[in-house]
TrEMBL record:
Residues 1-20 are annotated as: Disordered. It comes from Streptomyces olivochromogenes. This is Methylase.
Amino acid sequence: MTTRAASRPVGTVTRGTTNPNRLRRMDRWIAATHGAELRRSADPVAVDLGYGAAPWTAVELLARLRTAAPRTRVVGVEIEPARVAAARPYEREGLVFRHGGFEVPVQGSPSLIRAANVLRQYDEEQVAEVWQRLCARLAPAGPGSRGGLLVEGTCDEIGRRHVWVALGPEGPRTVTFATRLGSLDRPSDLAERLPKALIHRNIPGEPVHAFLRDFDRAWAAAAPYASYGARQRWIRTVGDLTADWPVTDGISRWRQGEVTVRWEALAPRGTFA
């Protein structure tokens, strides 16, 4: 794959923490919800931005996306040259690694950019600018297409709890909360994994705080369903949430321990509008 002209990468080096299977929940959600767009693309390119000290997440992303869109290619992008050199032996058909940052050094416009655990170290005030830069690199919308997708979020070290924002060329669309249900005491446990745009806004008066409060209340009210298992309790809880919050997905995703809400309902007051 031809790259853009060489220039200094935009961004700073992350800690690089990574583990196999860490991003499985995000990957499966992308394959389920964005697979049709990847299949429609003439050249479906997905970017694993800031894959870290080891290439596992890029390798896994290729495998999972190809279950939904077999022609997908993945480019792993890292700002630390030594990490790129260490990943090169893992290149194969459909998978390459490039040195770069938020400029996204690939030819054309990617169908997907995944930036997991990348913005955690940045200041909240920097997030909107990074989002705008990355959204501008996405494949544009067109007839029958919503365009490319940016998925930016945070998870714990072994991928049990994860929250991400999905953005299109036009900006943020949704927020998804995903968890291994057996590890959950209450939904607000996910607050520790809110992405940088939201994590400092989990305070009274902010929409995300109100959402997590209502989520916990619905979870408590659904306690009788716990005898049928955590999944049934979660499904009941999310079903109750739909009365007051714009949940965009359905029971097939709820069964996976997920719920997706429109961004506008959770957006911080005064920013990221």
